[in-house]
Structures are given as C-alpha cells and as structure tokens.
C-alpha cells in the first residue's frame, strides 16, 4: 500500500535479459534474429535486427543523440527533477540485473500492491508492416514464456500482459488464449500504430476484441516512440524528442477516435481498454471534439452509436498518468478519477521512480489520489481477493533492508 491506499501499477516495465531470444526463441527462427554481441561473445543490450532490419530507429535515423554525461535538463515541469538519469535510484536493480527480486523491491519502494508488467525491448519488435506472421508469433511466444517465468517468482504481486502478433489476428487469438488459460495473463498489449493498414475499427480485429470480452481480460495500448513502419511516422521526422512527444499522444488519439467513432465500443461493450504511458490530459478535449461533430455526422456516418463519447470512455476506458502532471486534478474532474490509473514507468530513464506515488499525493487531493492509485484494479479486474493474496505474498517476499512504503 501507499500511505494506507491500495495501489495498482497499471504499467510497470521490466528489462528483458539480453539473451532472451537466444534462450527462448524457437530454434528454426533464431537465424533471422541478430542480437548485439559484447566482447565476451554474449548478447548485450542494444538494437535487435530482425530479417535484416533494425527494430528501433534511433541508431539509424537520428544523427544527434541525447547527451551521455549527467547535467541539468532546463525542464519547467514541476517535480520532474527526479527523472535525471544520474540519481542512482536504480542501483539496486542494476546490481541484480533487473531480476524479479529487484522488481519486488521496486514495488515496495513505491508502495505498489500489484504490478502489471510491460516489456522494454519488446515494445519495438513488431510495429512494422509485412513481417512473416509466424516469425511475429514466435517472437511473442518467446517473450510470453519468459515473462511468465519471471512472474512466477511472486505471481500474486507480478502480473503480465501477453505480447500478441498483429500480423495475423487468428494467430493473435490463439496466443492470447494460451497466455490467459495456461499462464495467467491478465490481458494483452499492442502498439497503437497501424500495421499492414488494419485500422482499429476494421472488422479484421473483431475476433480479437470478442475474445478479450469472452476471457474478461484487458487490452492495453502502449506506444514506443514511433515505429519504423508506422502509418503516421512520416509526420515525426528523425528527432527523437519530436517523435517521443508526438507519437505518444497522436497515436493514442487516433486509436481512441477509431474505437469510439468506428463503433468498437458499441459492438464490444464489455471490452476494457487502457491507454498507457501517454498522460491523459488530451482525453477530455478529444471527447469534446468528437461530441462537437455528433450533430453533423453521427446520423449519416455512424448511425450505430447509441452513447456519447464520454459515456463510451467511462464504460470502456482507462487512461494513465505518471504522477506529477499539474493538470491531473482538472482532468479527473472531466473524465472521472476512477477512469484514471498510474504508470510508474519503472525502470525507464524518464520515470519519476521512486517518487511517482509521492508526486501524485502532492499533486492532487487524497480522495482523487486514492481513486487513481486504485484505477488499475478496475482496468484489469482485480478484486479484494487479489489484494489479499498480494498482501500475503508481499509479507513473504519482502527483501531485508529495503525501505518499503506504507
């Protein structure tokens, strides 16, 4: 708990081991995946190459990289100073090579009861057109098998969402079913980027939307700083600063418009969708913009819509904050704090860890903070029984000598 409040981290990250695909990828696909190699001959962190194409654009696209030496940021955002890369706040995790014990330690420091884990390297693997669907599936299976084993350290505290192959919706359905039924996944995640021209309101996705409803699991949208083959990436250019700002908002907005105007939420009323690691102050304005156009277009272009945009959002959606945004209280007043949740973004360089929850409690009223900290429970369907199990597991796995939030 955090200051006596239940806290679900709706989007906590892991750092995959560099040799994940060397160990877990089906052998017949390994020659198609090239891993960076260190002087010791072992895989190391860096850009993975799949079928001869790099999975991230930073090394290939951007000429001028961010500085490597510590220094000031000149940021004007309140409370952003804890995001400096040289704070030493992750030393405990680095020393343990980001293992599951370190993950539990990080949760204790932040006061997290249950964390839903998302990938790091895995965010950049699949957002490209024309990938072999069976290679796409194999990459997902390798990651999902690894993250399942990772969570087995404390499965009542550590939950995972399945990585799904967007290149064949039927393969994606099979993988979701496997991960939920056999390994306890609480949902799935996909990048909001369009792949192979399949819009989110396309009938192509209907089998996967329906399966999420049938299994009562969550669909998480999580961007990753633009994709090599994103339908919209031509808007962002080579500058990572530009791409990071633009992609995390624009791609999410496109997905939400498609799901409301395109009728996804009308035809899939029990679908739960999380818009993660993109803040959420854009949501109220976007909902108002859609509603503004209802009188002109709903009857002629979307006669199937029966609710207002805000009603669809409040029934089907949650959107994450990262704790220090100054507009959180105002946004909560417009869309409801109970439809907000917290992405700590641990252990990424731009996370506010270990002060995400502290920042939230300083930024908003305690009542609003309580609803937002608990928001992930609604998104993923966690109950008091899940929290009781997590409490018992936390008592069992609490590392000695590590400060724990209360």
3D architecture notes:
With 406 residues, this protein is an alpha/beta fold. It has one domain: Metal-dependent hydrolases (TIM Barrel, Alpha-Beta Barrel), CATH 3.20.20. The strands form three sheets. The chain has a six-stranded parallel sheet with strand order 7-8-9-10-11-12. α8 crosses α10. It is globular and about 65 Å long.
Explain briefly what this protein structure is.
41% of the residues lie in helices and 11% in strands. The protein is of the alpha/beta class and 406 residues long. The chain has a single domain, classed as Metal-dependent hydrolases (TIM Barrel, Alpha-Beta Barrel).
CATH superfamily: Metal-dependent hydrolases
Q: Classify the helix fraction into a percent range.
A: 40-55%
Strand ordering within the main sheet = 7-8-9-10-11-12
Give the helices and strands as they follow along the chain: EHEEEHHHEHEEHEHEHHEHHHEHEHHH
By DSSP, the count of extended strands is 12
**Strand percentage, roughly?**
5-15%
Number of helices: 16
Low-confidence stretches: 64-71, 73-82
Briefly note the CATH topology name. Answer: TIM Barrel
Shape type: globular
Kindly report how far apart the N and C termini lie: 6 Å
How many structural domains? 1
Structural class: alpha/beta
Q: Which CATH architecture?
A: Alpha-Beta Barrel
